[in-house]
Amino acid sequence: MSKLSASRVHESVQSLIDMHEHPAVLIDRAYRIVAANRAYRTTYGVKSEQLIGRHCYEISHHRDSPCHLHGEDCPHQQVFARGEIQRVVHTHFDGKGRPEYVGIKGHPVVLPDGEIYLGESIQRLAPPEAMNCEEMRMVGRSRPLLHAIDQLSQAAASPAPVLLAGESGVGKELAARYLHDHSPRRGGPFVAIDCTTLPESLFESEMFGHEAGAFTGCVGRKAGLFEDARNGTLFLDEIGEIPLAMQAKLLRVLESGTFRRVGGREALHADIRLVAATNRDLRNAVATGRFREDLYYRIACITIALPSLRERRADIPLLVEALLARINAANGRHARLSEAAWTRLMRHDFPGNVRELRNVLQRAVALCHGQIIEPGDLGLEEADADTGAPVAPNWGGLEREQLEALAERYHGKRRAMADALGISERTLYRRLRRHGFAAPRTGT
Ligand SMILES: Nc1ncnc2c1ncn2[C@@H]1O[C@H](COP(=O)(O)OP(=O)(O)OP(=O)(O)O)[C@@H](O)[C@H]1O
C-alpha cells in the first residue's frame, strides 16, 4: 500500500477503532499494521509512531515470520484467502514480554480505498496475574492445545461442572487450575484430591467432614473437602476410581446441593464448582456398569478433551525450554540440550506425556556432566533410540507435528531444519509442500 493511502486509511479508521475498549488493529495483506487503537498500543507497549508499517507477528508474537508458519491458525490466511470471519486463540506477548492467551476475532474490512484489510479485535483470556506464576502456566502454542484453552476459557465463565478427559500426565490438574483461575470463583480456594488415594472407609469423612466422636477413633470435628472448597473449586482427579457405593453418595450431594458431616445433623450448602478428571473412558465404564450413568451426566455437563503430547509435538521445544528453566532454577544449574539430545527427544513417543518429559529433563539435569545434556543423559529406552534415520520418516500424521516443532525451534529456517532432520533442503521442501506449509525462509 502506498504512503498516501496508508495515511488516508489511518485517518478514516483510527477514530472508529479507538472506540473499542479491547485491543484492535487493522492489518494489510503483507501483515503490516496500518492502524491500531490505544488499548493495542498499551497492551503491547509500543508507541503509535513505532507501530505503523511493522509486521503484526513482530509486535504480538515476538517473531520474525507469520504465525501460521509456526503451527497456529491465522485469521490473516482465512480473511485474505476466503473473506471469512475467524475466531482463534493465540499466545501473545504483552509489553513486558509476558506470554498470555488471547481470543482473536478476525474479519474482513473493506475501506474506501477499495482495499481489503484484516480487522482484529483481541480479548485477553487470562488476567495477567493468573499467567504470571510460571509454575501454573499451560505452556504451548499448538493448535490442539490452543483449542483446549479456548474451550477452558469459555467453560470458566459458567458454573457448570466440567469433566477433563485425557491421558495421564497431559496436564489435567493444570487445566483444572486454569478453569479456577479464570472463573468468578478465582478469589476462593482451589482444592484438589486424587480419588485413588481415598480409601472407601474414609471417603465420606474426607469428602464431607465429621463431627467429634462420629466413629471409632475419631477425635474432634473435621471439615471435609466440600467445606474446604467453599466459594471455590473442588477438583476430583481420577473420578472414575470412586467405588460405586460412594458414587451414590456423591451424586446425592450434587443433586441436592447440600451435605452433612458424618455424625452431623446440620445440612450444609455445597457451595463449590466441581471439576472432575479421568484418564479412562468413562462412557465405557458406564456401559460396563462400573460408573453410574446418572453421576456421569451430572459431572460431564461440559467435557473437554486434553490432547496428548504426541498430538502436539510442536509444543515440545517450548515445553523443553520452560521446564528446563524451572528445573535449572530449582537446582541452581544452567543445563541445556545438545543438538543430538534434542533430536533424540523429538524421536521419543512420550506415552507419559508432559509429566514424562519433565521427569526425563529432571533426570538429565541431575546426570549430565557440566552444562550440556547429551542423548545418554536422557535415559530413554533403546526401543526407540537413535538409529541414524531421519526423524520419524514413517509416522505419517506425526511428521506434520515434527515439522511444526522444527519450524518453531529454528524460526522457519530451511537449512537448519533440514540439518536437524539429516535430509537435504529439497527433500525438506517437498515434505513441507506435502503438508501444506508455505515455503520457509532460507538460510541458517
Ligand atoms: N501445558 C503444560 N505446560 C507446562 N507444564 C505442564 C503442561 N501440562 C502438564 N504440565 C506439567 O506436567 C506435569 C503433569 O501435569 P498434571 O499433574 O496436571 O497432569 P494430569 O493429566 O493431571 O496427570 P494425572 O492424570 O496423572 O493426574 C505437571 O508437572 C505439570 O505442571
Automatic annotation (TrEMBL):
<keyword id="KW-0804">Transcription</keyword>
<dbReference type="InterPro" id="IPR013656">
    <property type="entry name" value="PAS_4"/>
</dbReference>
<dbReference type="GO" id="GO:0005524">
    <property type="term" value="F:ATP binding"/>
</dbReference>
<dbReference type="Pfam" id="PF25601">
    <property type="entry name" value="AAA_lid_14"/>
</dbReference>
<dbReference type="GO" id="GO:0043565">
    <property type="term" value="F:sequence-specific DNA binding"/>
</dbReference>
<dbReference type="InterPro" id="IPR025944">
    <property type="entry name" value="Sigma_54_int_dom_CS"/>
</dbReference>
<dbReference type="InterPro" id="IPR000014">
    <property type="entry name" value="PAS"/>
</dbReference>
<dbReference type="InterPro" id="IPR009057">
    <property type="entry name" value="Homeodomain-like_sf"/>
</dbReference>
<dbReference type="Pfam" id="PF02954">
    <property type="entry name" value="HTH_8"/>
</dbReference>
<dbReference type="Pfam" id="PF08448">
    <property type="entry name" value="PAS_4"/>
</dbReference>
<keyword id="KW-0547">Nucleotide-binding</keyword>
<dbReference type="Pfam" id="PF00158">
    <property type="entry name" value="Sigma54_activat"/>
</dbReference>
<dbReference type="InterPro" id="IPR002078">
    <property type="entry name" value="Sigma_54_int"/>
</dbReference>
<protein>
    <submittedName>
        <fullName>Fis family transcriptional regulator</fullName>
    </submittedName>
</protein>
<keyword id="KW-0805">Transcription regulation</keyword>
<dbReference type="InterPro" id="IPR027417">
    <property type="entry name" value="P-loop_NTPase"/>
</dbReference>
<dbReference type="InterPro" id="IPR002197">
    <property type="entry name" value="HTH_Fis"/>
</dbReference>
<dbReference type="InterPro" id="IPR058031">
    <property type="entry name" value="AAA_lid_NorR"/>
</dbReference>
<keyword id="KW-0067">ATP-binding</keyword>
<dbReference type="GO" id="GO:0006355">
    <property type="term" value="P:regulation of DNA-templated transcription"/>
</dbReference>
<dbReference type="InterPro" id="IPR003593">
    <property type="entry name" value="AAA+_ATPase"/>
</dbReference>
<dbReference type="InterPro" id="IPR035965">
    <property type="entry name" value="PAS-like_dom_sf"/>
</dbReference>
